[in-house]
Amino acid sequence: GGFSSGLSHVEIQQAFFEATFSVMGHLAKSDGRVSEAEIALAREVMSRMGLSEQARHQAIALFSKGKASDFELQDMLTRFHFATRRAHNLRQMFIEIQLHAAYADGALDPAEKSLLLRICEELGFSSADFDRLDAMVRAEKHASQGGRVEQVSLDDAYAILNVSSESTDAEVKRAYRKLTNQHHPDKLVAKGLPEEMMKLAEEKTHEIRAAYERIRKARGMK
Description:
Elements: H1 9-29, H2 36-48, H3 53-67, H4 73-83, H5 88-102, H6 110-122, H7 127-145, H8 154-161, H9 169-182, H10 185-191, H11 198-219
Helix pairs in contact: 1-3, 1-4, 1-5, 2-3, 5-6, 5-7, 7-8, 8-11, 9-11, 10-11
């Protein structure tokens, strides 16, 4: 497959899996100690992904590794960036997953935020990119609290698509197409997203679509 990073597809998937769960553990630890809620949350993320028993054991071991005081964040990010350097959308998905994990306890505290900003910088995302992803994840979290994404509020819908009520219909459509493209499960898996995480990409696509439909209805767009 046309992978010019010199890594096989399986190696890219492995790099994504390792980075996701070890950095999640490191992030959970950044605010001092890992709370029960954060561990429960990590497990919830794993079950939402529909991880197999074996993959879940591996993920929990990685999470613990990330919490250890001798965890080399820099090394992990450098390796991950190298593995995904042809796949910007994969790195974006990685940051979105970390943001979801950070918000698991309801709020993003300053230590988590500064660590996430550092991670963004290492992976080639600006602080403006971070703010955009942050707003998107917050809105998604808010939208899914009602249990049904279909009931997404208009404000959340705009935040999920990263547009505003001032945006033109054409801009809304463009944002929708771009995001759908970025989170397309098959495309992400082709780039190296682990199969186990395909479910997350499918959920994202569903949320993006629900947000778009909500805005379309509100505006009477064709």
